[in-house]
Amino acid sequence: MGEFELIRNFFAAAPCAQGGEGVALGIGDDCALLAVAPGEQLAISTDTLVAGVHFADPCDPFLLGQRSLAVAVSDLAAMGATPLAFTLALTLPTVATDWLAAYARGLNAMAQDCAVRLIGGDTTRGPLTLTMTVFGRVPAGRALTRSGARPGDLLCVGGPLGDAAGALPLVLGQRQAAPAVAEPLLARYWSPQPQLALGQALRGKATAALDISDGLLADCGHIAAASSVGLQVVLDTLPLSRPLVDFLGLEGARAAALSGGDDYVLAFTLPPADLTPLQAAGWPVHVVGQVVAGQGVALLDAAGQDITPGIRGYQHFPETP
Ligand code: ADP
Ligand code: MG
């Protein structure tokens, strides 16, 4: 199968590539065209997944299709943007049609869930690598950024943390667990649900936001730096799922929540007055700490003692000491 047949069969023909609101021209020309309404801005983000670095290889291509798009769309959620479209740059070692068909099905399933349209891409030969660029729309000036946190704000997260990191030994086949534990954790790893509705609900309320991809402590460091504030995380308040605690124990679950990657749950700062109305409206908002004057991220125990660990999250190019 040649390059053009591959693009036509697996991607241009997919339901998610048939255009939709805001897509003026989709796959097939030199560029796609997006319509941007007056008073709106485009939110754009790119994510690359490299086989053996970001996912085990081989792995289930349907699940990979879901996950590769979810991690990219999660960045739109973090900005409070509404998904519009995405491109897919696919580097493949060989043309394996069964693999491509399953990958495209998984991609399409997540695209339909997130109401995002495939509008183009690139197809090349080389080590398996997936690059997604996502486009979203947001009312001008109202995107959630990392830079607006103020001392006195609450530090919040949008749901239980650590499940995806907890699932990693299961994904890698290093450990086994009963289905009641393994299934929910693996689901959180393979099909993270970008918190799009929550991100949009936080527009005009959250003072800073991001999606947690590298662990709560590491990612909070980005808000602290961008906002020139300090963040305090209170260990006892971390929301943890039952399956994670059953699998790793409380200590292990807390470590996964603090330093494990891949959760794609939103972390955000919120003026205290906004907390109760959001929770009363049913939004998943868990307070895990607060914003203070200063810099960096500190971990506190229930008594307020600083118990900050030394190692934080995953970095592709660690800083030299
Ligand atoms: P060009 O040579 O102009 O870069 P290509 O031949 O690479 O264009 O691609 C032809 C069309 O197919 C373009 O519209 C491109 O966006 C689209 N495309 C290529 N690869 C993919 C892919 N993996 N998924 C979706 N669309 C793709
Ligand atoms: Mg090309």
UniProtKB/TrEMBL annotation:
Binding sites annotated in the UniProt record for Mg(2+) 5: D214
Binding locations of ATP: G121, D122, R146, S213
Question: Gene3D superfamilies from the xrefs?
Answer: PurM-like C-terminal domain, PurM-like, N-terminal domain
Q: Write out the residues that bind Mg(2+) 2.
A: D47, D75
The entry's Mg(2+) 4-binding residues are D30, S45, D75
Summarize where Mg(2+) 1 binds, as residue positions. Answer: T46, D47, D122
Q: Which key words tag this protein in UniProt?
A: ATP-binding, Kinase, Magnesium, Metal-binding, Nucleotide-binding, Thiamine biosynthesis, Transferase
Cross-referenced Pfam families, in alphabetical order? AIRS, AIRS_C
Q: Which residues bind substrate?
A: H54, D262, Y314
EC number(s) stated in the UniProt entry for this protein: 2.7.4.16
UniProt catalytic activity: thiamine phosphate + ATP = thiamine diphosphate + ADP
> Where on this chain does Mg(2+) 3 bind?
D30, D75, D211
Q: Where is the PurM-like C-terminal domain?
A: 150-299
Pathway(s) the chain acts in: Cofactor biosynthesis; thiamine diphosphate biosynthesis; thiamine diphosphate from thiamine phosphate: step 1/1
> What molecular function terms (GO) are annotated for this protein?
thiamine-phosphate kinase activity
Please state every residue range assigned to the domain named PurM-like N-terminal: 28-138
Q: Which PANTHER family match?
A: THIAMINE-MONOPHOSPHATE KINASE
Q: Which family does it belong to?
A: Belongs to the thiamine-monophosphate kinase family.
Q: What else is known?
A: Reaction mechanism of ThiL seems to utilize a direct, inline transfer of the gamma-phosphate of ATP to TMP rather than a phosphorylated enzyme intermediate.
Q: What does this protein do?
A: Catalyzes the ATP-dependent phosphorylation of thiamine-monophosphate (TMP) to form thiamine-pyrophosphate (TPP), the active form of vitamin B1.
Protein name per the record: Thiamine-monophosphate kinase
